[in-house]
Amino acid sequence: MRKSLSFVLLLAGLLCVLNAYDIRAQHTFKYLSSSQTKIYTSVKEALPEKDSVLVLNLRNTELKELSPEVGQLSRLQFINLMKNELTGLPDALHQLPNLLEMNIRQNKIGRLSSKIGDQKKLKFLELSRNELRFLPAELCNIKDLEVLIASENKLEAVPEQIGKLQKLEVLELGKNQIKKLPSGLKKAKNLKRLEANDNLLTATGDCIYAPSLESLNLEKNRISSLPQNLGKAKNLKALILSNNQLKLLPESLTELQNLELLVLSYNQLMELPKALEKMKSLKTLIAIENKFSPEEQARIRQKLPNTDIRF
């Protein structure tokens, strides 16, 4: 039984992921897929042609240290350093004026230099599966940043200034130790997808009011209540709140008239808001392992006749 429930939740998560896939696909490895772009696989190989190097792919090469000579590749636009043994990055890397995409996933980096804020053109930054405990405030100076992935680290907080990233569309912070999301997130006017699952959050904070937010994943936290004016999140299409401590939902939930996916499994809910019929866009409701009576389940189904509902 547990396996089948997990499968349903997995499907819900996949739906949410697919909504953002196009955004990430615009950035990740776009140069690697171009047959006209030469891919260099070491700094040493690239240096003789340094004035024409756009792509440097050092993935899974057992690197323990990146040569500061990388700073000579002034036209470099993409660097892939994932799956290595790096514990830090040279300042020379952050001085590359044309770098658009940087992937340092799955290393042993415990600290980012404040110099990272000098990379003004950076659009895509992948930091997941490292040992980061904080993100430098200077990171919020990267005005063109569109995708920031910092999941599976040891982050305890996120800079309040993150709202300065006006072009940010995707922010992934899952599987960290974050206790509170910065209120500055509501100022990130282009933020469409926020993942903060598997953290230590006790409240949603103001992030839910980011004006363009479409997908919010806060599963596996310690959230016991939602804001009464939740309905102000007008553009929200996917809301995942499973594995929290919710006992009651605000009536304003029904004002989320663009919501298509709602996941509430593994909470302590006994009822849902009264005016569920207002949620005409809701396609999927997953509310497994709560405390709904048979009568409440019947009422919910009657109010949402066109919604796929799982209890």
Mean pLDDT: 91
| Largest sheet, strands/sense/barrel | 13 strands, parallel
**Which shape, going by the Cα principal axes?**
elongated
DSSP helical segment count: 3
Return residue spans where pLDDT drops below 50 for at least 5 consecutive residues: 16-21
Secondary structure tally: strands? 13
What percent of residues adopt helix (DSSP H or I)?
10-25%
Strand content: 5-15%
Strand order of the largest sheet: 1-2-3-4-5-6-7-8-9-10-11-12-13
Series of H and E elements: HEHEEEEEEEEEEEHE
In terms of structural class, how would the helical and strand content be classed?
Answer: alpha/beta
How far do the termini sit from each other? 13 Å
- Report Rg: 22 Å
Q: Helix and strand layout, with pairings?
A:
Layout: H1 2-25, E1 39-40, H2 43-46, E2 55-57, E3 78-80, E4 101-103, E5 124-126, E6 147-149, E7 170-172, E8 193-195, E9 215-217, E10 238-240, E11 261-263, E12 284-286, H3 294-303, E13 308-310
Question: Which terms summarize this structure?
Answer:
12% helix; alpha/beta; single chain; elongated; 13-stranded parallel sheet; 311 residues
Explain what this protein looks like in three dimensions:
The protein has 311 residues and is an alpha/beta fold. It contains three helices and 13 strands; from the N terminus they run αβαβββββββββββαβ. It has a 13-stranded parallel beta sheet with strand order 1-2-3-4-5-6-7-8-9-10-11-12-13.
